[in-house]
Each structure stands twice: as structure tokens, then as C-alpha cells.
Amino acid sequence: MLTPEQARDAACHAVDRARAAGADAADATVSADASTAVSIRLGAVEDVDRSEDEGLSLRVFVGKRSASVSSSRFNPDEIAALAERAVAMARLAPEDPWAGLAPEDRLLRGNAPDLDLWDGGVSDPQALKARAQAAEDAARAVAGVTNSEGGSASAREAVTALATSHGFASAYRTTNYGVSASVIAGEGGAMQRDYAYDSQRYQSALESPESVGMRAGQQAVARLNPIKLPSGPLPIVFDPRVGSSLLGHFIAAIAGGAITRGTSFLKDMLGKQVFAPGVDIHDDPHRPRGLRSKPFDGEGLPVSPTILVEAGMLETWLLDSASARQLGLEPTGHASRGGGVSTSNLYMAAGKLPRATLLGEVKRGLYVTELIGQGINHVTGDYSRGAAGFLIEAGEIVRPVAEITIAGNLKDMFAAITPASDLVFRHGINVPTLRVDGMTVAGD
């Protein structure tokens, strides 16, 4: 696999060839990764997968016209031909008045910050097999589990490099390890499935496979014999593993492209109250060993911790250089190489109420652990998704519930969110347990 230095040099070479072919400006990314994954089902190895990939993406500008091309070939002749092809394509493209590289004076200068994202990249297939086996064994050992969809363990090492024609060139490498289990409880038409997983930058930080497997099994068994609910308004409590999807909808609504197109239900809300006053939302690309930490964005700009929402107030859009120019603002360091914007370690800060108190205030409601479908209108904010979870009565979780739909409008839902104090950093997007009052449940 390419080293960071080799990847950076390849990106620089592609940019140089683009300029030699007639581009006014160019940038290039080089990515390389090697991964190993082992899957176990019913105690036997089901799959062992080993992959190694390398890729180059080159973007060129001729005036206000641009084109992008990609290749998995890195020899000099191939890169030269790729650059010439990209420049020829750009000359035929329509003009975009907002196109161009990031502002030169905003580029990251000096060494990129060391975020401790690489643990040495040691990957032992036998250790992965043992980890996957232990996860599945623990899940199948839970009373009530009747079948398995498998346990798995993975290890991945990756290198990312970016170079621009106006002075930026850097690269970094990462590791990622995962363990998961998915099992089935019950028999016949009464079967229920659930899963659990953990993912970490450092192998030594992984949750034990036994704990992951036990969690998967217990969650599957807890879902047995679900009831249906009558339709009507109910407070909804979102488990953290599904509550994070609400932040995903929020990010889509404050992305620069949606704002410039006028296709966001939050397009007029900058500097205004969007969430309840007790809500703060942060994006932290500098968290050591963070699953989405990074030293620079997709355009070579430095990244830094950002408060997106403070005391419920929307503080910023997420802008790449093109959308920033269109809005007359500055880019925020959230550019994604694939186009548009992306966040890093996104989270909603813990609230003041303990989880038990948040639930205890609910006389009758729904605790949601699974969401199904994508019934979101990002222009209007209308929200409707299939769901499953548990009935809450007198502040206690009492019975599993299935085959329902929850609905509302994201503007109203954001304004009504109450976060609990149980925030745990487990994923790329993290939230505490969230309660949203005033939603509608469609059931029987």
C-alpha cells in the first residue's frame, strides 16, 4: 500500500501534469486502503475478505469551467493522459461563476495536526476470526436467541492525500477496527432480529466481542411479541443509535448547496432559534482517535471545532468554497472531496436530565430503537418514518412495539427536543437519549 509520502507525491505529480496540459488550476486526491474482514455464521467461517485499493481523483479548472476524472493507475504516462483528458473535458463544460479552488490565504500551512488516528496497522486474520467467533458465540448464548446472521470482525488501514496547484500538499493515514453480531430471536412468524457493533481507530480500544454479542442477543430477545399501538399523538423518545439520524437531517438542511438552491426548510433560519434552548450541537474534527477526525478538509483548508448550534440558535451554515462565494461568505472548512460538505465528529451535547428522569416524565409514549425508510422532505421538513421500539407507561419501558409510523415536521421536532445527560461517544455521530413531545403515531 502507498505510504502517505508516496500518496502526496502522486497527487502533486497529477496537479503538475494538469498544469502542463493547460489547466489554469487543479487539485488532486489520492487514496489507498487495505482491509481484511472475517465473517462467522453458526460457528463456521462464512467469508474472509481481503481488499487493497488505490485511486486518484483529479479536478481541473480552465477559467470558470471545470471537469473531474479518476483512475486507479499511477504510472506517469497514465497520469499525463488523464490530465490531458480532464483539460479537454473542462474546455467543453459550461461556465460556473462560483467554480475555483479554495482561497489561497485560507489554506492549511505548516504540518497537519497529529490526531493519533493510526495504531500501526497490524492485522491478524486469526485474531479477527477469534473476535468474530466470540461475538457470535456470546449472542447465541443469550436465552431466546434461535438463529444467527453472523458475527464479523474487520481491520482497515487507509491513506488520504490532497495537493492543489496553489500551494497545498499533505497526507495522513488512519486505521479502523470493527466487531459486530446480528442474531434472531423467536420462531416462525414471531421472529425478531437485532444487532450490535463497535468501531474504533485503535484495536486496543475495541469493546470486547463478548459484550457486543451479548448486547445483540439481549436486544433481539427484548423485541419478541410486539404489540401495535392505536394512532394518535405521543411523546417519542429516541434511543441514541437512531436519534443520531435527526442530526443527519439537520446537517443536510444547513449544507451550503441546499441553502444556495433554496431547497432547505432552514434556509431563512441562520442566527435564529431552531432547537430548544437547552440544545448545543458541535462538530469536532480534532478529537484524538475520533472516527471522523481529520487534519484538513477536501479543499486543503484547516479544520477546527465548530459550534453549529448554541442554546438552540443556528450559528453557521456548512460551506465549501463554491457555496461560500455564492453567498458572499467564507468557507467553513467542511468541504467534501466528492462535492458538497461533510462533518466530522458530530454530536449533540449532553442535557441536564438523567435518562431515567427523561423517561419518568412520560406517562404514555414510545421509545424508538429502529427507524425504517426515508420519508423526509428536506424542502418542507415533513418527517414520516416506519418505526419499532417499546411502549412507555408511567415512565417505564414495558412492551415491545412494531409496525408503526411516526410523523411530524423537523422544524417542530427540533424545537421540541429535550436531550438527556447520557451522551456516549461511540460512533461518528453521537447524541444522548432524546425526547420529542407532540409527534404523531400511526398504528392500528
From TrEMBL:
Domain called Metalloprotease TldD/E C-terminal: residue spans: 232-443
Gene3D superfamilies named among the record's database cross-references: PmbA/TldD superfamily (3.30.2290.10)
Residue span, Metalloprotease TldD/E N-terminal domain: 27-90
InterPro entries for the chain: Metalloprtase-TldD/E_C (IPR045569), Metalloprtase-TldD/E_cen_dom (IPR045570), Metalloprtase-TldD/E_N (IPR002510), PmbA (IPR047657), TldD/PmbA_N (IPR035068), TldD/PmbA_sf (IPR036059)
One matching Pfam family: PmbA_TldD_2nd
Domain Metalloprotease TldD/E central residues, every copy: 125-224
Family: Belongs to the peptidase U62 family.
UniProt-recorded name of the protein: Metallopeptidase TldD-related protein
